[in-house]
Amino acid sequence: MWGIALTILGMIIVLVAAGWLGLRVKPKPFPAYPGQTAALESVELPADLPPPVERFYRTLYGDRIPVIESAVITGRATMRVSGITFPARFRFTHRAGQGYRHYIEATIFGTPVMKVNEHYLDGHSRQELPFGVIENEPKIDMAANLGLWGESVWLPSIFVTDPRVRWEAIDDVTARLVVPFGEEEDTFTVTFDPKTGLIATLEAKRYREATDEAKIPWHNAVMDWQEVDGHLLPTVGAVTWMDEGTPWAVFTVEEVVYNVDVAEYVKAKGL
Predict the structure, then answer these.
(1) How many CA atoms lie less than 13 Å away from 87 in the CB half-sphere?
(2) pLDDT tens across 58-76, in order?
(3) pLDDT tens, position by position, 4-56
(4) Which helix (H) or strand (E) is 258 found in, with range?
């Protein structure tokens, strides 16, 4: 009896140890996106921006602001699912300010064990998750719209080139970012690093589940700015539901391609 119990215990220990090790193996990066950034037209920096916003854009671009119409952002991440933090790799495809598609693979020992295909197109979200499909949910549509604009920190010129977006002053290091949601609007509070002038955080109130009665504070922290493919952008970002207290996901950008034709790719599935 004791021999069987010890054998079972040993097997459990081995499985737990293997799982622990497997969750510490980074997946290989996705192959490079088969396209190159097209030439970026530029416009003059708008006048009358709040001081920290003007400083940010002059630091990032100078007097001319590139016009970005699409972006394909690829990298690796860690993501907490049901209390377990998985290594992952991701590709996010954006029609700037209009919609997106997410493809994510969570892995163990670098092998995909969960895949996520989700999109936000024409004002509606559809999520194909390991546990089922979520669609036709107004609160999730609203949440996806905030996701669209929060991720636009990776193509930040859109915050001044899209005429539907506006900035409102708060103080020397904070401003309110007002973004469209259909015929309505939603807002972020954006803080800027007082030393570098670059965006440090974006915060909003957002639904997490379709059944939520109230929005939850949602915190996006830029952990690092680096140059990727010739563009200075946030390379590490941590996303936190503030009722949980710690980031549920940390994204590291490894490749970005702007102004490629994503009309069909944004509607596809998989890589």
Answers:
(1) 18
(2) 999 999 999 999 999 999 9
(3) 433 443 344 434 444 557 788 899 999 999 988 888 999 999 999 999 999 99
(4) strand 249-258
Q: Can you tell me the distance from the alpha carbon of 257 to that of 120, in angstroms, rounded to the nearest whole number?
A: 20
Please give the structure tokens belonging to residue 85.
């933090």
Task: Name the residue among 126, 127, 103, 101 with its Cα closest to residue 115.
Answer: 103
Query: What letters, b where the CB count within 10 A reaches 16 and e where it falls short, cover 72-99?
Result: bbbbbbbbebeeebbbbbbbbbbbbbeb
**Burial grade of 70 (CB within 10 A; 0-12, 13-18, 19 or more):** buried
CA gap 153, 203 in Å, rounded: 12
Can you give the three-state secondary structure of 4-35, one letter per residue? HHHHHHHHHHHHHHHHHHHCCCCCCCCCCCCC
For the entire predicted model, the pTM comes to: 0.91
Q: What is the CA radius of gyration of the chain?
A: 20
Domain 2-267 has CATH 2.50.20: yes
Q: Which amino acid is at 202?
A: L
Amino acid identity of residue 101, one-letter, is R
